[in-house]
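User: I'll paste a sequence; please echo it back and then give the predicted structure.

Assistant: Echoing your sequence first, then the prediction.
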Amino acid sequence: MASLPHGFNDAPSPRVHRPKNAKSEAKAAYGMPRLMIPAEAPGKCTTPKCGTKVDTLDETDPGLSGWTRAGVYGSREPDRVWCSGQCAAFGVALAELRLTAAARRTADAARKAATDA
């Protein structure tokens, strides 16, 4: 039986040469472009209307198509609209931190009742 070429999980052959457009030999995939990472830190989004309260916007506005509406039940914070999933996750985390004590107790009691049943 003839020997098979190197498999997918085998170490690269020493004959493989780094392409001229590779920036570093430390990269596993030489010369591959990197995905862009958002420059804004969470909570510092520069998109207009990102994080705006829902009741102040016209939800039929086509400019909001694809945006995320998020809110947390029991939070002091109203529902808001967010330009991306990253901004929405940040907003939901803040709303969860601002849950009222009564809502937190009610949620804990409901969670306990669900696990006991």
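Residues 25 and 114 are 54 Å apart (CA to CA). The longest strand covers residues 68-70.
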